[in-house]
Amino acid sequence: MDALCGSGELGSKFWDSNLSVHTDNPDFTPCFQNSVLAWVPCIYLWAALPCYLFCLQHRHQGYIVLSRLSRLKTALGVLLWCVSWTDLFYSFHGLVHGWAPAPIFFVTPLVVGVTMLLATLLIQYERLHGVRSSGVLIIFWFLCVVCGIIPFRSKILSALAQGKISDPFRFTTFYIYFALVLSALILSCFREKPPFFSPKNIDPNPCPEAGAGFLSRLSFWWFTKLAILGYRRPLEEWDLWCLNKEDRSHMVVQRLLEARKKQQEQAARHQAAEASGKRLSSEGEVLLGGRPQAREPPFLRALMATFGSSFLLSTCFKLIQDLLSFINPQLLSVLIRFISNPTAPTWWGFLVAGLMFVCSVMQTLILHQYYHCIFVMGLRFRTGIIGVIYRKALVITNSVKRESTVGEIVNLMSVDAQRFMDVVPFINLLWSAPLQIILAVYFLWQNLGPSVLAGVALMVLLIPLNGAVAVKMRAFQVEQMKFKDSRIKLMSEILGGIKVLKLYAWEPSFLKQVEDIRQDELRLMRQAAYLHATSTFIWICTPFLVTLTTLGMYVSVDKNNVLDAEKAFVSVSLFNILKIPLNMLPQLISNLAQTSVSLKRIQHFLSQDELDSQCVERKTITPGYTVTIHNGTFTWSQNLPPTLHSLDIQVPKGALVAVVGPVGCGKSSLLSALLGEMEKLEGKVYMKGSVAYVPQQAWIQNCTLQENVLFGQALDPKRYRQALEACALLADLEVLPGGGKTEIGEKGINLSGGQRQRVSLARAVYSDADIFLLDDPLSAVDSHVAKHIFDQVIGPEGVLAGKTRVLVTHGISFLPQTDFVIVLADGQVSEIGTYAALLQRNGSFANFLRNYAPALEDKEDEEVLLIEDTLSNHTDLTDNEPVTYEVQKHFMRQLSAMSLEGEGQGRPVPRRRLGAAEKVVQATEAKASHVLTQEEKVEMGTVKLSVFWDYARAVGLCATLVICLLHGGQSAAAIGANVWLSAWTGEAVVNGQQNNTSQRLGVYAALGILQGLLVMLSAVTMAVGGVQAARLLHQALLHNKMRSPQSFFDTTPSGRILNRFSKDICIIDEVLAPTILMLLNSFYNSISTLVVIVASTPLFAVVILPLAVLYLFVQRLYVATSRQLKRLESVSRSPIYSHFLETVTGSSVIRAYGRSQDFEAISDAKVDTNQRSCYPYIASNRWLGVRVEFVGNCVVLFTALFAVIGRSSLSPGLVGLSVSYALQVTLALNWMIRTISDLESNIVAVERVKEYSKTETEAPWVVEGSRPPAGWPLQGEVEFRNYSVRYRPGLELVLKDLSLQVRGGEKVGIVGRTGAGKSSMTLCLFRILEAAEGDILIDGLNVADIGLHDLRSQLTIIPQDPILFSGTLRMNLDPFGNYSEEDMWRALELSHLHTFVSSQPAGLDFQCSEGGENLSVGQRQLVCLARALLRKSRILVLDEATAAIDLETDDLIQATIHTQFETCTVLTIAHRLNTIMDYTRVLVLDKGTIAEFDSPTNLIAARGIFYGMARDAGLA
Q: Is the dihedral of CA 885, 886, 890, 891 positive or negative?
């Protein structure tokens, strides 16, 4: 190098330590300045260029128009190039004139000139690629300025020293160069305009990150605006930014699916290659083992293929940060040496302090870039996994659905996808932790020699111990997941069937089931918590024990090994670095263990069988036919016997085919087979044209009625109105609070059964498909309405005339109008032919018809149709509320108008149907907004202290206090140990030895072990307290929900209640206690750091205040914003799962209408809404981290500075102590805010659980003072005395002043228009509704005086919707185990289920699937009848229980009721009048009052309302 700089006047040596180091006024030699300082920026730019160009190649965002800014930057670049070349030419000029300049004056201007030219070209190249702010160039200009500062100072100093400027030309060009470089740096900090031709950002609120400059991205300044907004007022959903394009579900899921498809294809090719090799050997296997299962490629590989690139970027960041973290301990060592050497120049100390600060700031910036990158990747992981699971759930076969319940699939989406998101930040530790450990050990070896091996050996020994704990924890986790799954599944069923539980008084049985599962869950939690405490003890003690063994070994190996400050504290700070990867490894292992469980579950679900889309041939078909089946045999699952066999059916184009047969003979299965929902074992199915499907149980979405009917098609007002008119829905629209815009609750809760079915039918009519598959759509509606719908929609004159219609029905009256009839029996076609042909054939069908269809002669005119759709009132729903009276008046006017105009045809009665909505929303609000389900409430502002107090009380106040004190003790012990170490290092050295080392070592060890014990005690206390809190909070929630009134469940989506039981309880179980321990840890760490620093360098107290103010300011901004973001996130999470639940239940309808893609898009949109609050939350953590760590870095800077300033009075030991503490403070400060905020975000779970634990409850289940006498009611007399009821205060009465008496053993039919109060009467009897005035007496006992269970357990109801719970049939009949086997078999025999149950291998232990899905609706209704027969109470209520049953079964049921309940009082809400014609009396309700009450014969003779109804039904 010296040769380059030449000799002579301008020549100089390259390096001169007397000039640069050992002096009070340091400077570099001119040669060093001209070479190294000038070349550093150039080397950087050339090194960065290849990678940068590669990135730019792959980034096309349109080009940026040449702006003023761009022109200025380019001009500066050109000028800098000119300046450099001027220098070069000046050197040549010198050469020509004989004074030969040193070679460096040729090399440097050339290098700098070429580099400046490159920078100029790069400015333009970036502009053409749409780069608005260039990080590469900002760093380049920054390096140029920094490297220019030293010559800047030194040229002035030398000029002053010499009194003249030695080289005026180069002096001038240098200052011009410096000014230009500085200007370039300033200009490069401004960003360009957005690119031209870039896809226009149509988002209303784009994310500012996309347009942020380099510096703004580096410091996350772009987030500040949102932080301030969040501080000023709680954030709302519309404040959140739209997602960046590459983070949106659609993009992410698309990429993941493509990667998966590619790998499946590769796997298939690989398998084919293998198979061809193994062809011979496998033939035998195939014969034995059926079809070989294709191996699914690992899902993880697809994930890595999709997200690998961002993962690589994060790896680079992590690597740089890891290397930087080892610089500070080396600087600390220099600092301690500086303090120990009084003769050293002071500027050394300041330089070291400055370098420490710079190094820490660099570490901060890079670390947070890494975290941002990796957390956003985690977010994409979750988005991708949710999307893939959703898409899979749309195509799984029914047998898979039976294996994994809806609850389990939802868990895959919520818990397992979240696990992935949580593990991603740790993945880099797999290589980073070993790297950090190796580096730390290397530097320790340099410091302490081989004694370091003792410490390392200890660490290695502890790893298997940690591993064992982690494995055990994982085992607990898996088991706990099972319990959690089954508890959530049970809860979801309880919420689905809560009404049945109330009516049967079965809550205690189910409460006990949930509590038993919870008990097991808590047992595991307790064990896991003790394990956790053990691992906490290990990880607090590990670093300490390692330090102890190493230092102990060091001093005892050789008497001459002196422990001085440098050795001790540099080792301590290296051990602190070592502590992090060692702590993280067990956590990483357990996280990976949990994630591998999740991965297996996801992988298992994704590799399940899918419905065969080729199962139904859509393209070709015999001409003239639209549906044909050739020799079709179908099953619901490979391991079940076929449900349908040897079917041969051909349906001509435009035909109307009826499918009839007894309950459970496979009618619905036939339609499923046509839809491709069943597994085809043999045969062929052809269907040509689009399909519309109306399932037996209407599937209604939670959206407006209009959206339910349109089902994703564009609105054509004429067609829409026609569909509504045909399905008799216009009248309903008039009375729904918002007409077609009324929101329908979850599962159609605010519509009656009949309305739901008609909406489902209207959806089919509107879809205008070619083939209509109708699964008994007429059963849920009244006979008049059924006739109307048949005439207007299905029949030969209906809207669908000319389309192909396959109608499953129990209604005999419509069969003559069909083109032909298919009769099924036991899964086979027993007869097929036209109605007339079947009658002549005199087969079983003809006999059946003759018995059941005496009244097929023509009915009278249809005018009476208008009077009533006596349809099923959905019992939980209401009947009339205030508007009704107006409606009836309007209706009467309408009726008279009609009879005048003589247009009596087919407009059904306007029906008043106000949903449960209004029970909660103020009536006026409901009218205004038509919203049934209220938005989930988001708490605003700070979490109330009362919530923390609630949790502390649940943990136990003593326990809370003990935990805090123990942590305080641990901090004191830690400070004590370190101060002791500091004193030890300062001990005088006699004859090259320190004396009482063993005493020093002993005290140090005792203090360390004490720390560990205190922490362990506090962790154990917290474990016990946390489990107790989890138990108490869950118990309060569960008990309250079991006692909530029915109205609560009608207006609260079950997803929202389930969210409390799954997500929120999960947080209370698993997250809160560790978070609190972490908070205490970081809080005491921060405090002890400040105590130590102030004690050793009192000057530091001066800067504590400004730093604390800055810290608190950042903390306030952050906590307010992040808490609200977290809340918004948890509120936007429920809709993802609610929508998913809805999709899974309605998947057959979605597939039939071919709307899978639309539903995928809806799901993606809901996930995106959720991610919109996740993304800013991640950014908020990074924003906070950068700012808080800056405060921490200032602490390091000031600690070092004050140590340098006060070095005369400080011992090296104290400096080492305070600086090594300061180096840790950043982490503690950061964790403290993060855990405070985490705690605030998570304690919200307690708030939400508390909110639902304090909702209003119904009356007590048992009133001890007034229990009814045993055997009550003996007679079964029911008396209503001046009884009135309203849905809630402030509304009109539903039943007005009702007085009637039903004698014991009477059979009373209850009829009346919709909204007359029929259902309300039965609800009042069970006290689902409570009286406004008056009483109900049963056998003279006022029902209001006794407990609900005493009342409900003595009444029996067969409800309208037959609901079964998953579990054995025995449990479904008798959850309390009160009855003997004989009783049950007898009940099954009487309810005609005996043959079915006895044919099942398990008998009474036959497993019913969720909701009884593996029984037909008719069979479920029979199970409800069996329940009633078992109970055999004196009073039986039938609520339209005959809707889903064919006539034969219906007759059997009626006969059973007549014989078995002969002596009982029976109240029937009649739906087919013929069932009550032989009753003792009939009660006709009208507007909540008694219109007529007498025997059927007398009422018909009186020619009143009842006569009209009977005449209409053809019975009078």
A: negative
